[in-house]
Design brief:
Blueprint (H helix, E strand, L loop, with lengths): L13 H5 L6 H16 L10 H13 L15 H14 L3 H27 L2 H13 L5 H4 L4 H23 L2 H15 L7 H12 L5 H27 L19 H11 L8 H4 L8 H27 L2 H18 L11 H20 L3 H49 L5 E5 L3 H4 L2 H7 L4 E2 L10 E7 L2 E7 L1
Parallel strand pairs: 1-2, 1-3
Antiparallel strand pairs: 3-4
Length: about 475
């Protein structure tokens, strides 16, 4: 790749490029089909881990045992999340398939929104399509649409693209209506999940780095974002100052831990490309008898990382504001995800990878606009291979979740049957559970009115029955 070519910003083409009448429907149809293929297997999985906590919370709200906006177990301030969970619970109860259908559709809507947003930014649907397909197939943040508890992050993703597209439209014509749309979307997202603090940050960065926004409109965007953050922080403070009844046990807020950044970042950064198959959490999901798979994938991952990094560097040099915005967006998203005191989780990467795919798209656009056709095809081939690997990893993980879900259903059924036969027992201690079953089993049993722990309590004030996991079944141990 010789020479330097600074890609131009052809602003007047944006609306024609993204408009449905301009021929966007075929592109959108492909995104929808790919999203449905990715999400199809999700529809047949059960609730996982944190999902049972929210089922318990929704049941308590429905029964009137707790206020709708009571603090949750982590003492987070997420009234929007409570509304989403409550609404879906009223619609589907404990039928998992309904939640998964909604999650898959929301994930597809975010992908289509990314296609529209990137089309406006780079004035070319081909890079926008690459960004959207890479996003919808990315296995790093797949918890967001695989777990019911990740659904609020999908809503935040929708609010994010609405805010960015509205900010871009406001920059183009100065209509206060679009500034209002952007502000409303940002505030709604913040009341849904605290990670949405990234939205006003990124939209302010857009105002400064894009060169599309005049001085007075920059001030309007930044002032609106400052006002949004002020409103959210005041509500956040009042939430903790006046908390009373809670949904379960509540401790002090555990949102930020600066010491967790290095370890979390080591997990988060590689996951933007594809899962690190050498990680124990991934290796345990690989087919038995194929020890070479992790090695091959690791070599491929390192090679892909080097290649993509080189192309991205070229894009940052040869593309003006779009690459800078995407890189800052991704970096800010990773930092916010990495300060989570509870450790990094796949769903925390959902917003960061939106910035990452913008960088990929603008790199591809720079190659195309600078006449580097051969390198553009090679970059597209590398990204396509990464997409295929991500799709494969997603399907492997979904299969793993399906197997563990079936085992969890079996265990919960056995616990309920044993509890029915022994009404005198008030507590059950289920021990020797594999990790894939232990997470969420207490909340899952609690939803059915059975108190379960995964260790034998020291206190003998209540009647406790010990159940031991043996080869997929529970056998009764000693009672206390």
């Amino acid at each position: 790749m010789k020479g330097t070519c600074v890609a131009t910003d052809v602003r007047g083409q944006a609306d024609n490029m993204t408009g449905v009448r301009g021929g966007a429907w075929p592109w959108i149809a492909v995104i929808v089909v790919i999203g449905l293929v990715i999400g199809l297997q999700t529809l047949f999985t059960y609730f996982a881990c944190d999902d049972f906590y929210w089922l318990n919370a929704a049941k308590r709200w429905t029964d009137g045992d707790a206020p709708l906006f009571a603090p949750n177990c982590a003492n987070n301030f997420r009234p929007g999340t409570h509304l989403i969970v409550y609404a879906t619970y009223l619609a589907f109860g404990d039928r998992a398939i309904g939640y998964h259908v909604v999650s898959v559709l929301l994930h597809i809507i975010v992908a289509v929104g990314i296609f529209s947003m990137v089309s406006r930014f780079v004035e070319d649907r081909r890079p926008a399509m690459l960004a959207s397909v890479f996003f919808v197939t990315a296995s790093g943040p797949m918890e967001s649409f695989q777990w019911v508890s990740g659904m609020p992050m999908l809503v935040v993703g929708i609010m994010f693209v609405v805010a960015m597209i509205s900010a871009d439209k406001y920059a183009a014509n100065g209509s206060p209506l679009f500034l209002g749309f952007a502000s409303t979307a940002s505030l709604a997202a913040l009341f849904t999940h605290e990670f949405a603090i990234l939205i006003p940050v990124v939209s302010s960065l857009y105002a400064f780095v894009s060169g599309r926004v005049s001085g007075s409109r920059i001030r309007s965007i930044v002032l609106c974002n400052v006002a949004i953050l002020a409103v959210w922080f005041m509500a956040y403070h009042n939430h903790y100052a006046g908390r009373s009844q809670s949904i379960g046990e509540v401790g002090e807020p555990r949102l930020i831990s600066l010491s967790s950044i290095p370890s979390n970042m080591r997990v988060a950064l590689p996951s933007l490309l594809m899962p690190n198959v050498s990680a124990p959490s991934v290796q345990q999901r690989l087919p038995e008898g194929l020890p070479w798979v992790a090695t091959v994938f690791q070599v491929f991952w390192v090679g892909a990382l080097v290649l993509v990094s080189g192309f991205i560097l070229y894009g940052l040099v040869n593309r003006a504001w779009q690459s800078r915005l995407g890189a800052l967006w991704c970096a800010a998203g990773l930092c916010i995800a990495s300060i989570a005191a509870s450790g990094i989780a796949g769903r925390y990467l959902y917003l960061a990878i939106m910035g990452f795919v913008l960088v990929l798209a603008t790199t591809y656009a720079a190659l195309l606009q600078c006449g580097q056709r051969k390198w553009a095809r090679f970059f597209l081939a590398v990204c396509s291979l990464l997409i295929a690997v991500n799709m494969a990893c997603t399907q492997v993980t979904l299969s793993f979740l399906g197997v563990s879900a079936q085992g969890r259903i079996r265990l919960l059924t056995q616990i309920r049957q044993i509890a029915a036969r022994h009404p005198e027992v008030t507590d059950f201690a289920v021990v020797d559970l594999p990790d894939k079953y232990s997470r969420g089993i207490s909340w899952g049993a609690g939803y059915y009115g059975v108190k379960v722990t995964t260790s034998v309590p020291e206190s003998a004030n209540t009647r406790t029955m010990v159940l031991v996991y043996r080869d997929g079944d529970l056998v009764m141990g000693n009672s206390r």
